[in-house]
Amino acid sequence: MTKRTVMPIKLLSIMLCSLLLLPAQAAERDQPKLGYTLTALSKPVPAPGFTLEDMDGKKFSLKAYRGKVVLLNFWATWCPPCRREMPSMERLYQNFKDKDFVVLAANQMEDGDQVFTYTAELQVAPTFPILFDKNSDVARAYGVMGLPTTYLIDKKGNMRFRAIGGRDFDHPEVKKQILQLMKE
């Protein structure tokens, strides 16, 4: 191939890839806005304890976060609302990470390669712990019936709020609930 034929082939390849991405981008734009309400549980319920590993094999125990408000999110890379809410969780985490707050994202039944590939696609990769619930044992202990499901756990280790389905965690109403729990 000459230099003249290589350039049009590269251009054609770029155009083809762009055309293939258009339906996915349009589908993302056509999605309804994420909700922002977290449902208060009728009474505080002790959060089941767990220890899970991250991609590097580092162990994280819920007990270690006693004294902090914990946003515990159950998710998977194949779940569209999970994918949509992840950037808002990162913004929330960045906003509160220097306070008594942590985000723990428990991936369901996927391996590190799948999660690594997904997080590389994000404009900003998550900096909060992504943990692996390989057999969904922790999700079962929490009664998770669908993804995403999120719990807000108070400083004493009690589940106080729950959200089933995608959420905009960076919304002022969510921040207000977290700040209230931090004051308790």
Overall description:
There is one protein chain. With 184 residues, the chain is of the alpha+beta class. The chain folds into 2 domains: 1-30; 39-183, Glutaredoxin, CATH 3.40.30.10. Helix content is 39%, strand content 25%. It has 5 helices and 8 strands. The chain has helices at residues 3-29, 80-96, 112-121, 137-141, 172-183; strands at 39-46, 51-54, 59-61, 69-75, 101-108, 130-133, 149-153, 158-164. It has an 8-stranded mixed β-sheet. Strand 7 and strand 8 (158-164) form a beta hairpin. Mean pLDDT is 88; it is low at 10-22 and 24-28.
Keywords:
184 residues, alpha+beta, Glutaredoxin, eight-stranded mixed beta sheet, 8 strands, 39% helix, 25% strand
Distance between the termini: 70 Å
Which CATH class of the largest domain is shown?
Answer: Alpha Beta
Are there runs of 5+ residues with pLDDT below 50, and where? 10-22, 24-28
Largest sheet: 8 strands, mixed
Determine Rg (CA atoms, Å): 19 Å
Total helical elements:
5
Question: What is the CATH H-level superfamily of the largest domain?
Answer: Glutaredoxin
Identify the overall geometry: globular
Q: Beta fraction of the residues? A: 25-35%
CATH topology of the largest domain: Glutaredoxin
> How many distinct folded domains?
2
- What is the total tally of β strands? 8
Work out the helicity level: 25-40%
Mean pLDDT: 88
